[in-house]
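Q: Hi! Curious about what Transcriptional regulator looks like structurally. Here's the sequence.
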Amino acid sequence: MQIEAFSELFPLLTAANPETLEWLLSVAVEHEYPANRAVLMEDAWGNAVYFVVSGWVKVRRLSGSGEDVVTLAVLGRGDFFGEMAILDESPRSTDVIALSAVKLISISAQRFIQTLFKDPQLHHRMLQLMVRRLRQTNLRFQLRHQPPAVKLANTLVALGENYGQDSQQGVEIFNIPFKDLADVTDIGVEETAKIMEKLDSKGWIKIDAASHTVCLVNLKQLTHLAGKV
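A: Let's find out. The predicted structure is below.
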């Protein structure tokens, strides 16, 4: 991967200087995983920072017995994970699973921390993105009493804004399983299925099971439903 492409793909790296980008690329390790494969197990948190080159992953919270599994977040192209575990040495009870075929690059914890000390702009940018994630978490808390359709619209719009790919019909995202979509939105699975079917029948979205995509056809209406305008 070229330095320019590396910087453009990952918002975290837009503020990094060329020397930092060159160094990160030189120590990066590439990974590829098929759908449903564990990408990062709970005992591996804190070893590296991972960047999503392509595909979709989910972060899950595990119970002690492993029977109660809740999806905490869905991440796509251009995002990263593992950065907080580098700073927080407490035991982890989460793992990361590939929702689709996924390509990642990883940078070891030690080397990434060294880079943060050398490049204050990168350090500042990472703090900005972590604050943005905190605000998104706060938004979910603020929406807890909103109708399920409003909450789901917020999730779809956020996924489209953060990871969507423009197409002739609209903005395409991965066709996330209803259970994972429900967990992230904090509503029931049956509610999620009914709302998605209704949005599809209204023509606001188009679910294409064959290509594993959901096209946000009428992003303006979804944004309005989400209460963002």
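A: A fun detail: The first strand starts at residue 29 and ends at 33.
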